[in-house]
Amino acid sequence: MGKGLIKMSRARGSKLPLIITRVRTRPTSAIIGAKFVIECNIAVRNHIPVYTHWKKYHQDPGLLCDFYGKVAAKFAIDTKQSPVKGECNKHLQNGVRQFWYNLKKKYFDGIPLSEVPTESPVPSMTHDEWRELVEHWKAPHNILISTINKNNRSKVQFHQTTGSRSYTAHVENLGDLYIGKPPSPVDLFRETHHNKDDLYASSVELVLAEIENEMCKPTLDGGRKNETLVLSGVLGKRIKKPMFLQNVGLEHKPTRSNMSTIADLLETKRRGKAELQDLVNSQKANLFELNGKVLEGKDKQASLEAKLDTFTRSVYE
After folding, report:
1. In whole angstroms, what is the distance from residue 114 CA to residue 132 CA?
2. Who contacts 298 (Cβ-Cβ below 8 Å, separation ≥6)?
3. How do residues 249-281 score in pLDDT, each as one tens digit?
4. What is the pTM of this model?
5. 3-state secondary structure labels for all residues of 106-149
6. Cβ-count burial of 59 within 10 angstroms (0-12 exposed, 13-18 middle, 19+ buried)?
7. Cα 100 from chain centre
């Protein structure tokens, strides 16, 4: 258990309550949510093996139940609820991904294959599981994917400096610095993109300079420009889909319930189109059958008229 969680639990005299709802999948308290993430990562490092595919974790329900139990031992939480399981699974996946990255960086990257350990260097994995993971890393296809991912990560322009904490927890901790006045969007951008010496990267300095220039430009009504819109516009020029404003809570982020509702509406619309298409196809089939009957009737009528004409001629002759 983390030292910070131990102090908070002792001060409270009981486990910290962890509230996760269907509408808000993150814990309602940012501080408790940060402790929750830390405890999940500790449980992953100490007790969860690193498999080559996420499906293998779902194929081992005992492993997932053990993980839920270790989380429930630290917090007042009901791991039988679906939202709680979903949040635990998300942090389990993130923790395993980070553990995977650290193991690969320490025991595989830049090391000759003859010097890669053949036995598991961590107690949470068996020797066979470790060898399977190394064979997965050695596959040419996976080496190519790893290279592509490294190149993509090198294209990141604005590295956040909040550490392991989420943006929400970091913003909540800024309350003491902005007493009586909430931080502006630009202030939040500054606070989350500087290093320990309060220095900014060149890309961040260019963004801040452009924001100041945009804010100094006059508006049609003579008022002050909206910082949120200015920051969003400046970031949008450099990033295809900037997520900073959503991460700090300044823009609406669709919840899973909303997404499920949209999915239900799309599914209903799709079914309606399918039913309408079936009806159209049925009407076409009926019309084709009716046309066939009409043509058959015309042929019979022509045949009767020919017989009648032949009979009339025979009478007059």
Report:
1. 16
2. none
3. 777 655 444 445 556 666 666 767 777 777 777
4. 0.60
5. HHCCCCCHHHCCCCCCCCCCCHHHHHHHHHHHHCHHHHHHHHHH
6. exposed
7. 19
